[in-house]
């Protein structure tokens, strides 16, 4: 029996095509897992071969060449025209600026045993300026903060730090504000300068020190130039953003009224972007203060030198007292500049009747400040801070007692925690990186770069890997990479946990965000002190400090990403019967992938900066190489190569994570 199939009649409808078997898409995570499996298998076979290990005292040809260049520059510094008429002149100008500010507020001048303006005058000027640019609450905070610096017995050290910070910020802003305005007005210049700003903000603070000492010697001038270069990018970037954020309609209205380009800039663009520009100044001051403390490594005076000497001698009490002084100064400078940015808007909202008398009150305040300056210039009792710093002695003693108690009573817990992370996570990963053949690690890194960031990121990674091999500090670079990767993983655990909590709860965000903002104000040096007391001088101390240093920025980015998930999407998931865990893992985190990638990017950069600083407390690797290069002349070349390796790691991390963020958001 045959079955006759009739052709279907053609109609206006489209005929259904037979189902096509869907192709299975290989995810990026599967490819990365495959790369890691191949790496582990080859590691088991090739462990310990071609690792490029270099002993601490050994040098490569590149390191010796750097040493020769340093010696040659030192021998010809006073005869080479480039130094005579360029580098030496720059050093002289910067030295003059720093010396002027130091003579004014911190160092004895000439026959005077005290500075030109003593402690009472400085406190008076700080209080008046804080009131003039902010409000009376900020002025009280500033007066109390600077008085506390004297009570700690650290007045001169604090004024040295302030002098270096102010002089560096002054010089930096002379260049940064005009460059920022130019970048805001010119698209071409903005495209040219942005990669340089990205590169400068990627580099950890350590990296600026070694090359500058090559041209400007060790001392306050090099410290000030390094601080100026490090602090300028935020002001340039934020000023450009402020100029570009002015509404085009406002500029067009000014043009239609016949305003020249100069008038549009001075009468429209700058006044309307003033608040944002002041915030750029705030970021510049914070960056300068952080750099000034690190610059103690190249003989910059001030609180940083006190902390550095205390860390090197494991004197936790002294380090804590000086670190607290740095925190107090950072908080005061941050609050004053933040208040300056929002003063006019706050004044408009306020109904304080004294605002009508503000000019008269400011004039009276200026007279009081001038009288205090005169007294501090004329009388020793108003110039030298009274007392022996009893508060500082009590703080040092208390910190030492707490350290002793913690080591006696908490050592079991802290050591167990340290050993669990070190033996369970850090040591195996570090062994994988340092004991694998260099070409195997390089191939794995390039493969991961291609998978996460695409071909361009892979090319950048390949170039960085090749240059890392050329620096001669491959093994130390891998040790630093291991510490950075482990710390970043811990940062992201904290960032996701607290960030999701903050993003889902406005109350939690209001409670935690001020603490996170304050944590980001503190310079990196400060984070080492409490963990030195808990864990001693080990690489784990640097890792924990790096986690605490980098976690705030990751938490805030994740929180903002979760908060930006549309409420309608969350409501739809809730109405579909999803519980809280499902909403977080299936809706909010997947939709905030770009924020998670950005948080990873920023966490990596912050962690790398802190892990390197941890070379001061036993972290070893690249941080130790840089520090040893400053203290031991024969290791200068190796320290310079280590600084270059830090830059290469930072560039590699930054390019991969940024490319991954762009691919995620696309």
Task: Tell me about this structure.
Helix 20 (455-471) packs antiparallel against helix 29. Helices cover 80% and strands 0% of the residues. The chain is mainly alpha-helical. The model is unreliable at 1-24 (pLDDT under 50). The longest helix has 34 residues, at 316-349.
Question: Which SSEs are present, and which pair or pack?
Answer:
Blueprint: H1 28-46, H2 61-76, H3 81-105, H4 119-133, H5 136-151, H6 155-185, H7 187-202, H8 205-216, H9 220-245, H10 248-256, H11 261-272, H12 274-294, H13 303-312, H14 316-349, H15 358-378, H16 380-383, H17 390-409, H18 411-435, H19 438-453, H20 455-471, H21 474-504, H22 506-521, H23 524-535, H24 539-563, H25 567-575, H26 580-591, H27 593-613, H28 621-631, H29 636-665
Summarize the structure.
By secondary structure, the chain is mostly helical.
Q: Can you give keywords for this protein?
A:
666 residues, 29 helices, 0% strand, globular, disordered N terminus
- Total number of strands: 0
> Mean pLDDT, as a whole number?
83
Shape: globular
N-to-C series of helices and strands: HHHHHHHHHHHHHHHHHHHHHHHHHHHHH
Radius of gyration: 29 Å
How would you classify the helix and strand content by structural class?
Answer: mainly alpha
What's the assembly state of these chains?
Answer: single chain
Distance between the termini: 60 Å
Give the count of helical stretches: 29
Percent helix range: over 70%
Report the uncertain regions: 1-24
Percentage of residues in strands: under 5%
For the sheet with most strands, the description reads: none
């Amino acid at each position: 029996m045959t079955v006759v199939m009739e052709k279907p009649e053609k109609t206006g409808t489209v005929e259904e095509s037979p189902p096509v078997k869907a192709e299975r898409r290989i995810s990026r995570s599967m490819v990365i897992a495959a790369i890691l499996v191949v790496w582990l298998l080859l590691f088991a076979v090739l462990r310990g071969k071609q690792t490029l290990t270099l002993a601490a005292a050994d040098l490569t040809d590149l390191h010796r060449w750097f040493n020769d260049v340093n010696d040659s520059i030192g021998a010809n510094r006073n005869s080479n025209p480039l130094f005579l008429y360029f580098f030496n002149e720059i050093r002289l100008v910067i030295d003059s600026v720093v010396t002027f500010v130091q003579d004014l507020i911190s160092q004895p001048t000439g026959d005077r045993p005290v500075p030109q303006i003593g402690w009472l005058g400085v406190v008076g000027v700080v209080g008046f300026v804080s009131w003039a640019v902010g409000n009376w609450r900020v002025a009280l905070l500033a007066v109390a903060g600077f008085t506390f610096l004297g009570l700690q017995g650290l007045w001169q050290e604090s004024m040295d730090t302030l002098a270096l910070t102010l002089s560096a910020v002054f010089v930096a802003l002379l260049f940064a504000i005009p460059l920022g305005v130019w970048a805001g007005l010119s698209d071409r210049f903005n495209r040219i300068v942005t990669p340089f700003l990205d590169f400068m903000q990627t580099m950890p603070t350590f990296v600026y020190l070694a090359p500058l000492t090559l041209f400007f010697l060790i001392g306050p001038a090099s410290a000030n130039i390094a601080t100026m270069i490090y602090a300028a990018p935020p002001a340039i970037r934020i000023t450009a953003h402020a100029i570009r954020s002015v509404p085009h309609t406002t500029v067009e209205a000014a043009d239609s009224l016949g305003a020249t380009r100069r008038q549009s800039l001075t009468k429209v663009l700058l006044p309307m972007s003033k608040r944002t520009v002041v915030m750029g100044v705030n970021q510049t001051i914070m960056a300068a203060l952080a750099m000034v403390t690190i610059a103690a490594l190249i003989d910059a005076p001030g609180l940083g030198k006190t902390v550095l000497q205390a860390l090197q001698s494991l004197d936790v009490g002294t380090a804590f007292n000086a670190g607290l002084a740095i925190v107090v100064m950072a908080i005061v400078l941050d609050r004053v500049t933040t208040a300056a940015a929002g003063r006019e808007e706050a004044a408009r909202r306020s109904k304080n009747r004294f605002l009508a008398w503000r000019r008269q009150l400011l004039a009276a305040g200026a007279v009081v400040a001038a009288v205090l300056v005169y007294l501090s210039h004329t009388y020793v009792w108003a110039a030298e801070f009274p007392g022996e710093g009893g508060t500082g002695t009590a703080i040092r003693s208390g910190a030492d007692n707490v350290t002793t108690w913690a080591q006696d009573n908490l050592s079991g817990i802290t050591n167990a925690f340290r050993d669990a992370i070190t033996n369970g996570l850090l040591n195996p990963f570090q062994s994988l990186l340092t004991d694998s053949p260099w070409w195997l690690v390089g191939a794995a890194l390039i493969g991961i770069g291609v998978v996460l960031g695409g071909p361009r990121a892979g090319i950048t990674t390949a170039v960085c890997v090749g240059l890392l091999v050329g620096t001669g500090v491959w093994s130390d670079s891998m040790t630093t990479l291991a510490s950075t990767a482990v710390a970043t993983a811990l940062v992201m655990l904290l960032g996701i946990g607290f960030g999701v909590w903050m993003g889902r709860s406005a109350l939690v965000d209001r409670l935690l965000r001020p603490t996170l903002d304050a944590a980001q104000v503190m310079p990196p040096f400060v984070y080492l002190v409490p963990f030195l007391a808990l864990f001693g001088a080990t690489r784990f101390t640097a890792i924990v400090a790096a986690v605490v240093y980098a976690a705030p920025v990751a938490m805030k980015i994740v929180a903002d990403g979760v908060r930006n998930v549309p409420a309608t999407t969350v409501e739809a998931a809730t109405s579909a019967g999803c519980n809280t865990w499902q909403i977080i893992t299936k809706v909010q985190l997947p939709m905030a992938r770009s924020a998670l990638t950005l948080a990873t990017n920023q966490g990596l950069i912050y962690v790398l900066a802190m892990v390197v600083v941890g070379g001061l407390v036993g972290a070893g690797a690249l941080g130790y190489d840089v520090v040893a290069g400053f203290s031991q002349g024969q290791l200068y070349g190796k320290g310079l190569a280590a600084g270059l390796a830090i830059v290469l790691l930072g560039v590699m991390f930054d390019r991969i994570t940024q490319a991954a963020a762009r691919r995620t958001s696309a």
